[in-house]
Amino acid sequence: MASFSDALPMKDASPIKIVALISGNGSNLQAIIDAIAERGLNAKICAVISNIEQAYGLQRASKAGIPAVWIDHKKYSNREQFDQALIEAIDPYQPDLIVLAGFMRILTEPFVCHYQGRLINIHPSLLPRFRGLNTHQRVIEEGDSEHGASIHFVTPDLDGGPVIVQARISVEANDSAETLAQKVQQQEHKIYPQVVEWFCDNRIRLNQNKVYLDGNELHDRGYSPPI
Ligand code: GRF
User: Fold this and answer.
1) How remote is the CA of residue 13 from the centroid of ligand 1, in Å?
2) Is 74 exposed, middle or buried (0-12, 13-18, 19+ CB in 10 A)?
3) Which of 58, 91, 139, 155 is 20 to 30 Å from 114 by CA-CA measure?
C-alpha cells in the first residue's frame, strides 16, 4: 500500500533554496544561518530581503555572504504594487521556501497565494491566541499563565494559517513584556531552525490547509516540542 511519503516528489541532494524576508534585528534569521552552518542543514539562503534599509538583519546576511536586498515599501503607492515588486525580487531565486522572520508588512492575497505551501511565518504567541501586534503586553494584561511562539503556513487570513509548531513558556508573576519577549525569542531560535530542517528533509507538507509531518496530520496547535 502506498504511504503518504511515497506520494512526495523525490528531493535530490541539492539544498533547498530559501529566501528570507525581514524588517528588523534578524535574530531568527541568524538562528537559521547558524543552524545551516553548524548542523549542516541541506539548505541555502539565496537572499535576504528587507523593506527597511537599516534592518540589522541585512548586515547579518551580508556578513554571512548572502545577498542583502532592500526594497523600500514607501516607494510603492499600494500594497499590491509593493508585493509585486517583492515577487519580482524573489522569483528569480526559484525558492523552495520563503521564510518570514520578523517581516512587518501585511502581505496581499495574490502574494500569499503565489507562494502557497512554501511561505511560513513566526509569530510571538500561541496562535490562535493573540494575533497581531504587542502580544507580550497583551499576555500580561490578560493574565495568561502560558505564552509562546508559533510557526505557521501563511494564508490570506492574517496570523491565521495552519500551525506547524508551537513552543510554550510559562508566565511568571514577575514577568514583564520585555522578559516574555526574551523568553519567547529563545524558543523561537530553536523552533525556526527545526522547521527549516523538516523542510530540508521533505518531512513537512501543506495539503488542503492541513499540515502534515511525516505524513501525519498535525492538529490545531501543530507539533509541540517537549518543554
Ligand atoms: C520575532 O519575535 C517574531 O516572532 C516576530 O518578530 C520578531 C522578529 O525578531 N514575528 P527578529 O528580527 O528575528 O530578531
Assistant:
1) 30
2) exposed
3) 58
Question: Which protein residues touch ligand 1 with a CB less than 6 Å away?
Answer: 22, 24-29, 57, 101-102, 122-124, 149, 185, 188
Active site residue 152: no
Question: Who's near 210: CB < 8 A, 6+ residues apart?
Answer: 162, 217, 218
For atom 12 of ligand 1, the residue with the nearest CA is 26
**Which of 21, 27, 133 for a ligand 1 pocket mutation test, highest count of atoms within 8 Å of Cβ?**
27
The whole-angstrom separation of Cα 168 and Cα 18 is 26
User: Residue 153 is placed in which grid cell?
Assistant: 503556513
How many angstroms separate the CA atoms of 25 and 185, rounded?
Answer: 12
In this structure, which amino acid lies at residue 144?
D
Catalytic residue among 123, 136, 152, 189: 123
Per-residue pLDDT of the chain (227 residues; tens, 9 = 90+): 334 444 444 445 799 999 999 999 999 999 999 999 999 999 999 999 999 999 999 999 999 999 999 999 999 999 999 999 999 999 999 999 999 999 999 999 999 999 999 999 999 999 999 999 999 999 999 999 999 999 999 999 999 999 999 999 999 999 999 999 999 999 999 999 999 999 999 999 999 999 999 999 998 788 888 65
